[in-house]
Design brief:
- The chain is of the alpha/beta class.
- Strands 2-9-8-7-6-3-4-5 form an eight-stranded mixed sheet, sandwiched between helices.
- Helix 11 links the parallel strand 6 and strand 7.
- Helix 4 packs antiparallel against helix 14.
Length: about 500
């Protein structure tokens, strides 16, 4: 009997065809691209593995400048959030006789406050699908304080949805917006690949508006209006416009006038605004960060029904807690029916991770003046931000000193986005290899130096050749990166002249 069953199983198995192959996976999945962790990073991972196994390269290690992942490149975590998180993860420590000798009193007090707000006082239990009420209240207070608006109705914890970083919230909002391929979402070019990957996955149409390189990557109002008109002529309904401020990959900060113009255009053309503001703490130039919510509020009652989603995250700023996966989206002028549908969507995933929620509370409600943790917190924050500013300025100076490179100042965020003038000989060779010239340049840079960056074509830029690099390596490592890059670039131009 057993032998017969084996025989039947073998015969049936031989007739079976695989359900999942590349040809049977949805076309939208096959077409999705995420350059930040694409071909260059896959090759960088291969090289790193080979180095660990003893293979020889012209360098000792791979330096990942492809993604805004600060702690991977040596940025230390802040003390206060990690102390709070450690006691939340192991609350039995609160009963330790000498706990006050190990942790500051304000850390212990914060942990008690958070635990008191939780139904089960455990990070291992699910929370409300929008996140802990206590944390959402702290986010709401943060927004009022950040924008200096003393209006009790300015925001509300009910309008806050916590999430596992900003990305899931962005996908949720795009899911609400996209009905079919006739719905379009405007994204800035250059753009962060999250948007160009997610929009087609959800069945929508990607619409583009170009940022003006000659105006510090600011908005070109006429070009945007023209793009909206063309979309309508093509039968695409523009449903929303994405803005990244400060910019990724371009590092610009939008002026109040730019923001006002975007709001007016979206209002007049019946579009929702998605304000990706995860780099709001990373400001290095003279243009301050202004939230879209603040500018919208100050534009007055004429814009009271302008719909806005605003996103923030733990991953950037001076926290750099990418692995904790904490973020939020705030809803402004979104009706209750839509909010209910959004709640349904996030409830499918039950709740955001609790550790990320806890760290979010420490970000939006840091130690206050006079508390035991304040001095350490401020010192750590200032050291990180001052170092980032130095590196931002230094990176642009070095890049602009090299032949064939032009780079706008990094006013914010964590990146520079230089334009490179590639020789015709190199462009021809790239085409013969079936590669974009900027991709070949970045691959050759990786193979020669171990420096991993992202080609500009991965951000949708099809005019000229660019690449994006972070300036996150620590000061001493960053000097080495700049030296190695400078040598490579000059030799590369000489090779292809």
């Amino acid at each position: 009997m057993i032998g017969r069953a084996r025989k039947l199983f073998t015969r049936n198995e031989s007739k079976r065809r695989r359900v999942l192959t590349k040809s049977t996976i949805p076309l939208s999945v096959q077409k999705a691209k995420y350059a930040v962790r694409g071909r260059l990073v896959i090759r960088a991972n291969e090289i790193e593995k080979a180095l660990n196994q003893g293979s020889e390269f012209p360098f000792q290690k791979v330096i990942y400048c492809n993604i805004g992942n600060p702690q991977e490149l040596g940025q230390p975590p802040l003390t206060f959030p990690r102390q709070v998180l450690s006691l939340m993860e192991y609350p039995d420590m609160l009963n330790y006789k000498y706990i006050s000798d190990i942790f500051p009193e304000d850390v212990i007090e914060r942990v008690h406050q958070i635990r008191k707000s939780m139904d089960y006082q455990s990070v291992g239990a699910y929370t409300h699908s929008q996140g802990l009420q206590f944390v959402r209240e702290s986010v709401s207070d943060f927004i009022k304080k950040r924008d200096d608006i003393d209006d009790p109705d300015y925001t509300s914890p009910d309008m806050i949805f916590l999430s596992n970083g900003a990305s899931p919230s962005i996908k949720t909002v795009l899911t609400l917006l996209i009905r079919d391929s006739n719905d379009g979402i405007f994204i800035p070019i250059p753009q962060y690949p999250l948007y160009s990957a997610t929009i087609p996955l959800l069945g929508g149409s990607e619409l583009r508006y170009d940022l003006d390189e000659n105006a510090q990557w600011g908005l070109n109002e006429e070009q945007l209006i023209s793009s909206i008109k063309k979309a309508n002529e093509d039968g695409i309904t523009p449903r929303a416009l994405v803005v990244i401020n400060p910019g990724n990959p371009t590092g610009q900060c939008l002026t109040r006038e730019n923001i006002q113009n975007i709001i007016r255009i979206c209002y007049e053309n019946n579009m929702v605004i998605l304000a990706d503001e995860v780099y709001q703490e990373n400001i290095y130039g003279d243009v301050p960060f202004l939230s879209f919510k603040k500018v919208l509020y100050e534009m007055g009652s004429d814009f009271n029904d302008m719909e806005l989603f605003s996103f923030h995250s733990l991953s950037k700023g001076f926290f750099g807690e990418c692995g904790q996966r904490g973020g939020y989206v705030e809803l402004t002028n979104i009706n209750k029916e839509t909010q209910a549908e959004m709640y349904k969507l996030v409830s499918i995933n039950l709740c955001p991770n609790v550790s990320g929620q806890i760290v979010m509370n420490t970000m939006v409600n840091p130690p206050e003046i006079g508390t035991p943790s304040y001095v350490t917190y401020i010192n750590e924050r200032n050291i990180i931000l001052d170092s980032l500013k130095r590196r931002a300025i230094k990176a642009v100076e070095v890049l602009n000193s090299l032949p064939g490179i032009k780079c706008n100042p990094a006013q914010g965020a964590m990146y520079t986005f230089p334009e490179i003038q590639l020789p015709e000989k190199q462009i021809k060779e790239a085409k013969e290899k079936g590669l974009e010239p900027d991709v070949l340049y970045c691959l050759d840079l990786l193979e020669a130096t171990g420096i991993c960056v992202v080609p500009g074509s991965g951000f949708g830029r099809d005019k000229g050749y660019f690449f994006r690099t972070t300036f996150l390596p620590r000061d001493d490592d960053f000097e080495v990166v700049l030296d190695k890059f400078s040598t490579f670039h000059c030799e590369y131009l000489e090779k292809y002249k």
